[in-house]
């Protein structure tokens, strides 16, 4: 039911045959794993063992692997450590420059412990397994890495979408002729969100640093809202959500919460909800979370519009 398609640069894409009646949409939802090993027998064996769950690319050298990464989004890079021109650790460090969210995993019979520890500390390697591998354990690890990848991609997407809300807040401050202190705070918020968009995971927000107990309470409340929104969407009944989000946004507004605070609350809540869940459930939480976050930011913008307009007339 599967066919192996050989394409240039010595890499292999294994796709389900169309006779499987699998739709293109379901193909796109399959996480992509890149397997890199200079032994073609190893790449073929791993591909056969994993292709029922993942879309598989294989490469027999680091240069080909980097070529694939330049053209194809990859969730997990599964690589050997000892290869002729570049080690697995070096490959994953280069790969991080091309795809920061991709998770790196080394499977090898030989490794340099010092180099591996350094790579793990730098964030380019998320795990290691010795040859011969236990395929069941490897599959479990790949599922975990895919979840981490999906959350990282979602966080970056949320940070980008928050930029539009920041622009709107800046416009509101200009219209309301807010004082220089408020303008400076907004510039700081914008810089923080831009920083969070280029580093995964995001750094702590001001509320998390100055009021940890309050921040944790906000995360717990938002987690409940997000979980409720997900359940109500399944029942096609979300009549109560706008009011609940409006009340929550007013609480944030009274705290002068910035976009970075909202993103950090959203990120922490999402991590709580996704812990231990299936990839399908995680995908539901992430999509619903994106919609809830945008609605929440809209309510917060409206709150600040009213508050700042009132202050400008005092």
UniProtKB/TrEMBL annotation:
Residues 32-146 form the Response regulatory domain. Residues 135-179 form a coiled coil. CDD domains: REC_HupR-like. GO terms for biological process: phosphorelay signal transduction system. Keywords: Coiled coil, Phosphoprotein. InterPro entries: Bact_response_regulator, CheY-like_superfamily, Sig_transdc_resp-reg_receiver. Pfam families: Response_reg. The modification 4-aspartylphosphate is found at residue 80. The keyword Repressor does not apply. This is Response regulatory domain-containing protein.
């Amino acid at each position: 039911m599967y066919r192996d398609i050989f394409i240039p640069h010595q890499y292999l894409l294994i796709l389900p045959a169309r006779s499987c009646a699998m739709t293109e949409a379901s193909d796109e939802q399959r996480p992509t794993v890149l397997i890199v090993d200079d032994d073609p027998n190893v790449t073929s064996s791993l591909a056969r063992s994993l292709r029922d769950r993942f879309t598989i690319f294989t490469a027999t050298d680091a240069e080909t692997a980097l070529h694939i990464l330049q053209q194809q989004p990859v969730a997990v890079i599964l690589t050997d450590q000892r290869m002729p021109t570049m080690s697995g650790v070096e490959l994953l460090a280069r790969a991080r420059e091309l795809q920061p969210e991709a998770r790196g995993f080394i499977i090898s019979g030989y490794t340099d412990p010092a180099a591996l520890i350094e790579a793990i500390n730098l964030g380019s390697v998320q795990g290691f397994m010795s040859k011969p591998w236990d395929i069941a354990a490897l599959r479990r690890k790949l599922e975990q890495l895919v979840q981490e990848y999906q959350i990282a991609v979602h966080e970056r997407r949320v940070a980008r979408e928050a930029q539009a809300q920041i622009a709107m807040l800046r416009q509101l401050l200009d219209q309301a002729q807010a004082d220089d202190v408020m303008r400076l705070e907004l510039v700081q918020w914008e810089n923080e969100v831009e920083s969070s968009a280029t580093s995964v995971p995001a750094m702590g927000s001001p509320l998390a640093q100055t009021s940890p107990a309050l921040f944790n309470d906000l995360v717990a409340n938002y987690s409940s809202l997000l979980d409720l929104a997900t359940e109500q969407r399944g029942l096609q009944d979300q009549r109560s959500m706008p009011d609940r989000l409006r009340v929550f946004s007013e609480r944030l507004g009274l705290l002068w919460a910035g976009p970075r605070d909202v993103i950090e609350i959203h990120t922490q809540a999402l991590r709580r909800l996704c812990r231990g869940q299936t990839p399908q459930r995680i995908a539901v939480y992430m999509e619903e979370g994106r919609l809830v976050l945008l609605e929440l930011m809209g309510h917060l913008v409206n709150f600040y519009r009213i508050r700042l307009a009132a202050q400008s007339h005092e």
